[in-house]
Write a structure and sequence with these properties.
Layout lengths: L26 E10 L3 E11 L5 E4 L30 H16 L2
Antiparallel strand pairs: 1-2, 2-3
Length: 107
């Protein structure tokens, strides 16, 4: 993905906003505007930062991240607060694959 690209429907009604920019090693991976509760503008920020034992923390900043990975049989996409995910997305799958690969190198 390039700066300015987006994945429509990925950030749901539950998301994380402004990160603690004082945290050492924090990387902002994605951020943007979102309609919080469908009525007011909010902000989300996906981040990654190193943890104490050489591991790392990834915060996708959205309740819908798993919706971009797969659709189990019989699953119905959620619809709430005038928003819904759009199901599996190759970009979300690739990002997750890259994160897992990154994590496995740290073991």
């Amino acid at each position: 993905m390039q700066h300015g690209d987006s994945i429509f429907g990925l950030v749901g009604w539950e998301h994380h906003g402004e990160p603690d920019l004082e945290r050492k090693g924090l990387e902002v991976l994605a951020e943007g505007s979102v309609w919080a509760g469908g009525t007011r503008e909010g902000h989300y920020t996906a981040t990654m930062f190193p943890a104490p034992k050489g591991n790392f923390v990834f915060n996708a900043a959205t309740i819908f991240w798993s919706q971009g990975l797969s659709t189990p049989p019989g699953h119905i996409l959620p619809w709430s607060h005038w928003s819904r995910p759009h199901g599996p997305d190759e970009r979300v799958q690739t990002i997750t694959k890259n994160l897992l690969k990154h994590a496995s190198k740290r073991v």
